[in-house]
Design a protein that fits this description.
Elements: E1 2-4, E2 12-14, H1 20-39, E3 63-67, E4 73-75, E5 78-80, H2 85-92, E6 101-105, H3 111-123, E7 129-132
Parallel strand pairs: 3-6, 6-7
Antiparallel strand pairs: 1-2, 3-4, 4-5
């Protein structure tokens, strides 16, 4: 409790709340929750029920197009010329031009050659092209 003395007035009490302890408690609670929140995201083991729904069929065999270092082309392991690319892709995909084509190219092949091959794929109406590489932990 605090007291105030005014000249000509009797001693009176002031009714103000001291907020310093309140702020201290709030900061301590904030620190506790900051530490406890990441610890509360523990995986919970759940025994899931089985489903009687039909499973989806496995995806079709992908169409793989390979560009070797000598610029020769292979579709699913079969060598071909660039002029026969569209026909070979149609055979490999059973005429389905919406199927995904996985493009593998040797790392010694120039970037322009890979882009020219991608232009040939676009001209043949194969627009879903994935580039295939080998994952590594570091760059060489």
């Amino acid at each position: 409790m605090a007291a105030r003395i005014d000249p000509g007035d009797e001693i009176g009490e002031t009714h103000e709340i001291n907020v310093t302890p309140f702020i201290d408690v709030m900061l301590v609670l904030l620190i506790i929750f900051m530490i406890a929140a990441p610890l509360s995201t523990v995986d919970v083991a759940v025994d899931l029920p089985t489903s009687s729904a039909q499973s989806n069929p496995p995806p079709e065999k992908p169409v793989t197009l390979t560009l070797k270092s000598d610029l020769s082309l292979l579709v699913d392991g079969q060598q071909l010329s660039r002029s026969n690319l569209a026909a070979a892709l149609d055979r490999a995909s059973n005429g389905d031009r919406t199927r995904r084509v996985f493009l593998r190219a040797d790392k010694s092949v120039a970037y322009g050659e890979v882009m020219a091959l991608m232009d040939d794929l676009r001209a043949a109406s194969y627009l879903k092209v994935d580039l295939v590489g080998i994952e590594s932990d570091h760059r060489q």
